[in-house]
Amino acid sequence: MLDANRDDFLLGIVGAGLMGRGIAQVAALGGVRVLLFDSRAEAAAEARDELGRTLSMLAQKGKITEAAAGAALARIGAAAGLDGLAGCHVVVEAIVESLEAKRELFRQLEAVVADDCLLATNTSSLSVTAIAAACRAPQRVAGFHFFSPVPLMKVVEVVDGALTALAAGDALTALARRMGHAPVRAQDTPGFIVNHAGRGYLTEALRVLGEGIADHARIDRILRGAAGFRLGPFELLDLTGLDVSCPVMETIYHQYYEEPRYRPSPLLRQRLAAGLLGRKSGRGFYAYADGRAQFPAVPPVPPASMLPLWVGTPGCGAREGLLRRLEAGGARLDRGTRPAPESVCIVLPVGRDASTAALDEGLDPARTVAVDPLFLDLYATLMGTPLTTASARDAVWAALAGGGTEVTVIRDSAGFVAQRVVAMIVNIGCDIAQQRIATPQDIDRAVTLGLGYPLGPLAMGDALGGATVLAILDALHGFYRDPRYRPSPWLTRRARLGVSLLTPEP
Ligand SMILES: NC(=O)c1ccc[n+]([C@@H]2O[C@H](COP(=O)([O-])OP(=O)(O)OC[C@H]3O[C@@H](n4cnc5c(N)ncnc54)[C@H](O)[C@@H]3O)[C@@H](O)[C@H]2O)c1
């Protein structure tokens, strides 16, 4: 097998654009000699000059030593023609994202490089298998998918096509480690791991918005504040730009033959047509002034109410904590076994909406207010039934806010916002494991490093409890009768057995 740690290892990089330069930088810093080639005559030399400036800047900032910067630059060369890559052990392409261009490039490279040279593609959206199929020796072709900016995004997906030799992926895995990156191994499938696992967060948030449950700013606040995501889904869409994210969502949905779990929202095409791309166009879901998002004002907390509060849903783990918190916030509690006629009835549903919870517990829907019991910390999400009075809702809002909890009010929703979005992420992560696209550990590593989620999807499911995630999905599935919410067999089995979602199968 090719030894990625040999001293004379030579990496060819075709395409000296954003990605090619980033790959060159991390390879050279990892001690790998690099040859850059680009079809635009001056591009490779320009890339080398720019890498020289970048490396000096890193040395000035004290991130690397002057000696390391000099040695890394000395390892980077430019090839005048494709035949200059003849001595490479691996050639990775980062050219234009076109199947035909990549197939043609690999055909030409096969005529130049040695028989044991590996050919790697940095494609994000094309099939590695389809690129390899154009080659005389498709077993030497694999995906080597880096994320932008390469020096900061420390994960790389090593993608095995249908015809890729195991040893080819093994060698790229070792090369990635030498470059200081964390390799994860994926079968060639649409979106590989990261772009596949990322479907849940955005499509479910868009669905909540499209259903009129909450506006984009509230959804972002809940997912940041209550569920711990670094960026809300609409901040993320604005950052990426709808011109980029909308086609990715549509492509993955169609590549999976209209799998409802990945269904994009009709809101996207309409916003794209309106030019509401995001940060880059000055307006997306948020308006931007001087590059900064203009967040709408948070509604003021209503005045404290004298209405007594009664908490239902016996058996819910969050019930006692909520009672203590309401008491600390100065609320008048109704501790009766059933609510007094004037009491506001608080329910704590999992996967159900407030209306269903009120009916299930035999409560007056006009006095029922639901609080999300799973994401109840310094943050609370509240919703009423369509009949809940403003005074009942405001009484719970004021009592929670009085105890120092930040409150966001939404309209009635099966699974609030965080429950359903997190359940979708977990379910899709489980199905990636079920399809054997990657190991459970690699799925979680790819998602934490590639998407910056607080936990990988499987660990996220374990944190809530597999049985709880299954209950949320079953309730959503029953409510909407939409196969989008059908639980993955991976989740169902592990939840029933009561074991971690990271449990592999021999
Ligand atoms: N930009 C990203 O965030 C990102 C992330 C992951 C993967 N990718 C993938 O990496 C690849 C490159 O993306 P980029 O953002 O660096 O693009 P880029 O436009 O910055 O660079 C592409 C470079 O390839 C050169 N090129 C085009 N066709 C060529 C050919 N046939 N032979 C030699 N050179 C050729 C161009 O002159 C250009 O310098 C694409 O396949 C893309 O899907 C991009």
Sequence stretches where pLDDT stays below 50 over 5 or more residues: none
Q: Mean pLDDT across all residues, rounded?
A: 97
Helical element count? 20
Tally of DSSP β-strands: 15
Q: If strands are numbered along the chain, what order do they take across the biggest sheet?
A: 3-2-1-4-5-6-7-8
Largest sheet: 8 strands, mixed
> How many discrete domains?
3
CATH class of the largest domain: Alpha Beta
CATH superfamily of the largest domain: NAD(P)-binding Rossmann-like Domain
Helix content: 40-55%
Which architecture of the largest domain would the CATH scheme give at its second level? 3-Layer(aba) Sandwich
CATH topology of the largest domain: Rossmann fold
What's the Cα radius of gyration?
Answer: 26 Å
Termini Cα gap? 26 Å
Q: What percentage of the residues does DSSP assign to strands (E)?
A: 5-15%
Structural class: alpha/beta
Small molecules bound? nicotinamide-adenine-dinucleotide
Morphology: elongated
InterPro entries: 3-OHacyl-CoA_DH_NAD-bd, 3HC_DH_C, 6-PGluconate_DH-like_C_sf, 6PGD_dom2, NAD(P)-bd_dom_sf
Protein name: 3-hydroxyacyl-CoA dehydrogenase
GO molecular function: NAD+ binding; oxidoreductase activity, acting on the CH-OH group of donors, NAD or NADP as acceptor
Pfam family, one: 3HCDH_N
